[in-house]
Records
---
Amino acid sequence: MEQTIAVILGGGRGTRLHPLTKHRSKPAVPFGGMYRIIDIPVSNCLNSGVYRIFVVTQFNSASLNRHVALTYAFDTFREGFVTILAAEQTPENADWYQGTADAVRKNLRHLRPTFAEDVLVLSGDHIYRMDYRVMVAAHRQQRADVTIAALPIREADLQRFGVLRMASDGRVTEFHEKPASADLVRGWDLPGGLFAGQTGQGPMYLASMGIYLIRLSALEEMLRPEMGTDFGVHVIPEAIRTHRVYALPSTAYWEDIGTIRTYYESNLALTDDHPAFDVFDPQMKLYTRPRFLPGARLGHAQIRRSLVCAGVRAGDINVDHSVVGTRTVIKSGVTIEDSYLAGADYYESADALNENRERSLTDVGIGGDTVIRHAIVDKNARIGYSVRIDPGERCPNMDGNGYAVREGIVIVEKDAIIPDGSVIPERR
């Protein structure tokens, strides 16, 4: 693995995750109560023995840059790094990144001096576990120029993925990015029984997971300016004609955090008895910034099917099927159901709390006698006493003062102030 480097793409504007991406990039969005999404691909790399990692950023990258700088520091006896490659103007390139392939193309000058044999190109907004050593072994055994990690999908999901056709020897013969209908990939469905336990539920197809392993020499050939700006739309379809492109099928859990609904459900799924994405897996540790926090301190609390993180301070509360993030402060009488609380970046000092009283400002955290259901509460939110946050059924998308509703979920924005007695969403 010493000859493998990783390039993690920091993502675009993340408009479908707004307002979580209002002040940060998608990979910097909190996850699991104490992590950020970027920690997942970086941890996969570290667990796989890939210690040279570039993170390519462009939009709202300040918090991501800070998190990476504070988290991933290697000792002087290991030639490893996690380095931010921010969009920059150079004599050769004066534009912003125009797509996934263009982002890698404009950073080739940073990859060449590593003298790596292979480059892992990863997305910074996917939730999954993978040992890339398995992928590297298959890639080299097949003498592939490109290996694409792929997962089985149903016909209903075709428009979400790049779909590929694979020969019996694993070589990719055709590729179509997000086909609008099954007619465009007719005949590409998989033989019955190829994936155990997946039969009898309609035709299945192979879809790209957005994980590419590419020989560095082939990558330079594939990223000539005339080859296009996006891996799925331009580069991979062309590479199939000119290079040895193979697929590595996988049935492991994988989720693209592309919408508020998938983000919400992926977080709450961590509370399952046997979660598909297990943060407790000792073989695949999930790394993040050490915070040196005490254990959670709870009063007469009733906690069911929930994940409560370090540094939580709570009174007599009732929590069901929720994630309570680091440093969350919750006063007594609060009910939290089916919700994700990202927590806080800091504790307020005694002087700050006194100043809040003088200014009639709500403290960071959740005031007493508040009810929160079907919600995402972003970091450092100030929610007052006797607040009710509950979208109810069939609530339309809307934007309010310090909050938004998307896909039936209330999102309380980062640093938002929700006054005492508020009812969210406001009834109009």
Note: The chain has a mean pLDDT of 90.
---
Amino acid sequence: MPTATVGDIEIYYEIAGQGPRLLFIGGTGGDLRQKPGVLDGPLKGQFEVLVYDQRGLGRTTKPERDYEMREYGDDAAGLLEAVGWTAAHVVGVSFGGMVAQEMAIRHPARVKRLVLACTSSGGAGGASYPLHELAPLEPRARAVKQVSISDLASDDAWQRENPDAVKAMIDFAMQRQPPADDAEAVAGARRQLEARSRHDTWGRLGEIQSPTLVCGGQRDGIAPPENQEALAARILGARLELFDGGHMFLLQDRAAFPRIVEFLQES
């Protein structure tokens, strides 16, 4: 099992593909055992892709203390060093986009080109939906709520007309929740959400030096379009592109991944 010692934790990671080096930072509750994953998608056809379980999740260490967003950014930079990568392109999705902001601010030399997808800066730039407030709900009710806010088009009428799509979305949301009988995993996931609730890079976004693409879904109720607009306006030279769909726009709009690949391949 490939692991790397980074600070006070052992990070589980995987590498696949060929081409320029790319670090992919996943979202809330991400666990590389969940399938399909990013290594099942199009990126590894164009890049050598490094993915990992973040602190508190999957097969990475789950320290029994509060986590801070700066630590997540340091973990990402430390993993690059541990696997022998001086720098890489970085794609951060949702919570991973928050981590990518911290990484780009705290470790600018490690980040070549930066993609921030369906994410938020916090602070005056707007926060993503407070998922930690859903913790008291039982798992299925929590998943149903996440589906309803993920794409603002998925109202009750739409859900009644598209039961198969709704089931797939709920199954995906359920998969990203820790097993209720695994106390360590439950605590790690909770600490991730608590760190997420404190995320605020707004006053430091001007320190990002990497060419940056900010992208999101036009109907996203978790990281709404106005948050993407604020991010792009705050990061020097950043581009903004909004796609058809909600928080899952990368799967909903076939134009999204090709556009990200095109941006990353620019010289």
Note: The chain has a mean pLDDT of 94.
---
Amino acid sequence: MTHNMSVDLCGVRLKNPVMTASGTFGSGAEFSEFFDLNRLGAVVTKGVASTPWEGNPTPRICETPSGMLNAIGLQNPGFEVFAGRDLKFLEETLLPDEEPAEEGSLALSSGMTGTKVVVNVCGHSEEEYLDCVEKLSGERRVDFLEINISCPNVREGGIAFGTDPKGVERITAAVRKAARQPVIMKLSPNVTSIAEIARAAEAGGADALSLINTLTGMKIDVERRTFALANRTGGLSGPAIHPVAVRMVYECAKAVRIPVIGMGGIRTAEDALEMIMAGATAVSVGTVSFHDQRAALGVIDGIEDYLERHCVPDVRDLIGCVR
């Protein structure tokens, strides 16, 4: 029995629902040494700004039980280097789309669609976001923009927009007006009501949502009697946050009509399927890739195996099946 693994995200066909998570995969150059990136539904790049950012001082990563804290601060080389190096690599590495198959065709499950590119965009201000978005609008190989309004490790912009519904709606509307590609707003879990934030992004014109970003946490080195991170706080990711992420994906999927991309502690196909059954159209695999560089492939293969074992002809039949 042939199973359809493809999903529709904002009118764009993904060969399967598995993506990488921004900040954990770079542009994929390092991971291409371990597996063929063309197996993925989409590659999500590390955050890029219109100009280079140095990020936070070190130390800025530490392990925690069932997770890790990071306070990288969205270090990135800026648009010019990103376009000339990272986008060029992806354009040379990822195969182009083949002839589109008809809706409902079993050929969709065999990878008739090329791996898509999602560029994560960051900024300190609305002007910085828009400058980068406008520059990316002219890049042919960029299929989606993921707007990071949820990083807890920068002192300006980002989280300031992402925790205020009015701010979320305003920045979303401004980005949507400037962007040529579908706009995915990346939401922060560090809010009172994630559903309220999701509705604000939808009201601003978002084409999709991605969640969750990291939870704000802290670790203290008791032997040195100081903070483990120079930034004092950092973003907690990994298996520890997965149940929180599933709950928030469920709440957002019920609150909005646009697609939701689920992330947060996904290690296995079972973790990904929880997100999908909670209402996610696609999922992003992140922190586990530091431990297992081929983890995303295991998730893809595991979902295919689940469809086979349970005689489910189409992965889309599982989206939001838990009410």
Note: Residues 79-93 form the longest helix (15 residues).
---
Amino acid sequence: MRQRHITTESWPIRGSFTISRGSKRSADVVCVTIEEDGFTGRGECVPYGRYGETRDSVTAAIASVPVAITREALADALPPGAARNALDCALWDLAAKKAGKPVWQLAGLRAPTPVTTAFTLSLDEPRAMATAAADAKEFPILKLKLGRDRIVETVTAIHHAAPDAKLIVDANEAWDIDLLAQVEPALCALNVCLIEQPLPAGNDAALAGFPRKLTLCADESSHGTDNLADIAARYDAINIKLDKTGGLTAALALARAAREAGLGIMVGCMVGTSLAMAPALLLAQFADYVDLDGPLLLARDREPGLHYAAHGQLFPAASALWG
């Protein structure tokens, strides 16, 4: 008989993590463990307040579906989001353990290889962010959390501190079209390769036809395939996160549809442990940009965890962790 366990955990962040919407000092996650026939599958999700989620609401949503639910039935039982992600990933892990085959084989994917992840710099004063960039200059890609103020000054300081790094700028919906038009030309000269979610979701129609040299990537605006035509008209790429799509199953479908629509792909994450990153690593195999540095932002990670090596190299998960 199948059994399911739902737990909540809080993982301290190294220092604090700040974006344009606020700061936090811990990663609060929900974990699902499914046991059946002597095998165990696990999944982790990160409830996100921006989408109206809390640990209590996600726990309740997971508990609301039958214990014996199949992965195929999840799409009708729960909407896209953190709760469905934890269940979907736990069911993938369980299936792999029972079959004695890795998830990538069950999903018809190629064997995963190491990828290069970006490393995120939390929003701060220009000098502090430049210091953080210098400390992280071994990473070939740095992702910068920015607000509305001192944008070019901040990116200039970071570029000088880590001149070889490619830079991703993430505004988390903090800008407007006039501010984007003002700063985009200057950012082109500072090794910035991509701007993520500059305008608020639902207020980004102005990006259609907006002349730019830098890649614009949708994050908060993109959750699934339902609005992909609008996304393709406004953006050049999408950030796929399992906590938004509702798991690996939907994320793989979105990635295929995005490619068909001519969109680039970033694979991103919330701040969580290696258990949350491991399924996304399968998606990262055919992404243009990878941002799976969540465990590096924590004071400690679960064990066993993913192996992060020099220069941002991230290695596939061992079966003891997931998949």
Note: The two ends are 22 Å apart (CA to CA).
